[in-house]
Structures are given as structure tokens and as C-alpha cells.
Give the backbone structure.
Amino acid sequence: MRAEKEPDWEKLRNGRSSLLGYRMVEMGGGRSVVSWTPQANVGNPMGFVHGGFVGVLVDDIAGMAVSSMLPDWRAFPTASLHVDFLRGIRVGDTVECRGVVVRAGRRLSVADTTIHDRDGQLLARGTCMFAVDLSDTDLVGFTALD
């Protein structure tokens, strides 16, 4: 199935990058990089980002990595999501979020997201599995891991 034109990625994220305040830095080859400075609208009373918003971000970043490897537009709903919260993410601090396709399968693909602070400390990490039919492509077995 060939898309007529490139999809509007922001529209497909349904405005979440504006809501959460993240900015795409790069995307391609099964990888994505996003800069995020969370604001008070995603914080808890202690001044840290609420975990649910971290989960949304993990899903979006991993999804960007998956979409960057696709030869054409196709649906890829999230089949599972797991997040490890290692350190709190402070509202107002800028963090770097990286997504990478771990393995593209015939019907399911796995991508990881990591979130680091400016000093390189790992704050959160997550894994998403996406239901995407790649049986008609040569992507089965693809990985963007080094």
C-alpha cells in the first residue's frame, strides 16, 4: 500500500508534541531523537513529570523510530508498553530522548526509548511492541542497534 503523499507526522501524533512540549531533533533509519523540556502542565505536585506522561513520550519516541524505517505509510498500533522509571524527571529540565528499532518482525516490531539528562544519566527507559505487518517488505529482521 503506497501512500499518495508523506503523512503529516504532527497530525498523526494528534498534537502530543505540542501538548508535551517536545521537539524532534532527528528521525531516520530506525532511530529517533527528541529534545524535551517538560513544563508544569505535565508535572506532579513535587515538581517531577507524572509517570503517565513519560509513558506517552516513550510510546511516541519508539513509534517515531519505527515509522522512520517504514517504506510507506501503514498503521502500527502499540501492542505493549513497558516503562522503567529510574530517576525523576524534573519539570523545566531539558532531557534527550532516543528511540531505536530493536527488531522488526513479520507482524510485530520492538523499539526501545531511553531518556537521559544533560549529564548523561539515564532517567527512564521503555520498550514498545507495535503491531505492524511487514510481511510484504524486506524489513523482517531489521535492527537499528549498533
Observations:
- The mean pLDDT is 90.
